[in-house]
Amino acid sequence: MSTAAVVVSSPMTPYVKETKYEFLRLLRARSFSISTIGFPLSFYLLFGVVAAGSGPESAERAAYLLATYSVFGLVGSSLFGLCSTISNERAQGWLELKQASPMPPAAYLLSKLMTAIAFGVIIFGVLLFFGTTMGHVHFTAEQLAKLLMTVILGVFPFASLGILLAQVVPPNAGIGFVNLIYLPMSFLSGLWFPLKGLPHWIQSIAPIWPTWHLGQLAIHDIGYPMSWSVAGHVAWLACFSAVCLVLAGVLFRRSAQKA
Amino acid sequence: MSTTVLPNPSKAAAASAAALENVTHRYGSHTALRNLSLTLHPGEVVALLGPNGAGKTTAVKLLLGLLKPSEGSVSVFGQSPTERTVRQRIGAMLQVARVPETLAVGEYLDLFRSYYPHPLPTAQIVAAAGLDGIEKRQFKDLSGGQKQRMLFALALCGDPDLVFLDEPTLGMDIETRHNLWREVRSLADRGKTVLLTTHYLEEADTLADRILVIAEGAVVAQGTPTEIKSRVTGRKIKCVTRLTDAFLLALEGVRSVEATGAGITITVDAAEDVLRSMLAADPSLHSLEVSSPALEDAFLALTKKETV
């Protein structure tokens, strides 16, 4: 046929469109957008702003929890945005149709990664708005920039975990499965409130959770002391991401052979 | 197996749009395809006809490079089906249970068009798939038939030379089905190669230049629709009659007689002459029904013929 339009599209076009539509469809899916933004926001307002009261320590508490709830938010957007979507799309045959198309395979994962980052940043922005207006939080520009970087880069380990979980969750059970991991892990890592008030054994096992490492980096960004060095946490998270991706790759190839 | 063995398979593959050569595919201990060969020639419409579980979808997935054959080889345009340049010349409509629901029809077309170097203009895709007026509607608000039409539209986005349609009319109402048939014929008129799978004999008959009947992972018959139909003819006559089995079996064209409930079921080559004789001999004959054999019966008959 010669009626094909003479459109010279850039090789980047599928990447851009894939990302645009992945973001749009999740934003429009209220079950996704309301829970990923609403969970961290309501928890933060409750524990970080309302319960903080108006004492001299209240702004400090609001600031500390703003950092940890931002981490809580990006972990949610990464896990839901990758694990639930991939496992559903696979179970429903949509992933297969895309694999059969000339879509660049990297565009599929990249669009989900960028979307998770976008939601992570939105959640951070929303918390920052309520933290500064209602919680009297004040960050320096440097603290803000560091925290924003942590939010953006922090998506990688949890997106990797999401890709791995997508290979093992039962079809269409992604959301429940993610909640089962996401909520307890966040609590045990001190993202909901500082671990100081919890039993000692919970504090001592905290380093096994990836959320703890990212949470430590986040509070460090705004001037709190942390156990371990920055390099230590970053190295831990980098190794964690690599292990998740390698395992996910192995499992994906194995199930593709069986499918 | 009645597939022709070609002296030089690789030459044949180069001239074909797509080919499976002696492909066996196993899922664990289950063998889905057994030493199956099929060739799609440029510009022809081929139907893979068979009951559920016959291996039709497996054959399509192998041709799309979604599965690797346990044995044998797969080629599309003389190359591996996983090559991106090959995929850019292919469109596929697969059985998809659900697609992400919060994007609109037009957005999906925009997305899929971006995958191809020379996509069809959106208006042309919309017209061909019958999506006029619902481009702004989100997938979740579409009816079952509209969803199928959108999936068909996605297969057309890249103006492909080769189109795979896996059970394309499943769940479609009659009007939608006929529209889709018209579009498949128009693809063929424009020189496109089409492979469709179906378990509707009528669909294969209407659309295909060539039909491959597959059962349990092997080709049990292939030929033009006329050739295939001639092998699955026969009618069943059900009625209540006083006529004896001996009398009936003596009539020309009667294959078998069996008692069913209050009456009998007679299997015949052609119903008209047998009925004329029966009605003349038994004025009290009543509760008359004439039917074509169920497709499953036809497949069984074909399988038997091939293995005897």
Overall mean pLDDT of chain A: 91
> How many DSSP helices of chain B?
12
* Helical percentage of chain B: 25-40%
> What is the gyration radius of chain B calculated from CA atoms?
23 Å
Q: Residue share in helices of chain A? A: over 70%
How many individual β-strands of chain A? 0
| Overall pLDDT score of chain B | 87
- State the CATH superfamily name of the largest domain in chain B: P-loop containing nucleotide triphosphate hydrolases
Assembly state here? Answer: heterodimer
Instruction: State the CATH architecture of the largest domain in chain B.
Output: 3-Layer(aba) Sandwich
* Number of individual domains of chain A: 1
Q: Could you give the distance between the termini of chain B?
A: 12 Å
Count of separate structural domains of chain B? 2
Percent in strands of chain A: under 5%
Provide the β-strand percentage band of chain B. Answer: 25-35%
User: Uncertain runs of chain A with pLDDT below 50, 5 residues or more?
Assistant: 1-6
CATH class of the largest domain in chain B: Alpha Beta
**Low-confidence runs of at least 5 consecutive residues of chain B:** 1-14
| Main beta sheet strand tally, sense and closure of chain B | 6 strands, mixed
Keywords (chain A): Cell membrane, Membrane, Transmembrane, Transmembrane helix, Transport
Transmembrane segments (chain A): 32-52, 64-86, 107-132, 144-166, 173-193, 234-252
Organism (chain A): Terriglobus roseus (strain DSM 18391 / NRRL B-41598 / KBS 63)
Main location (chain A): membrane
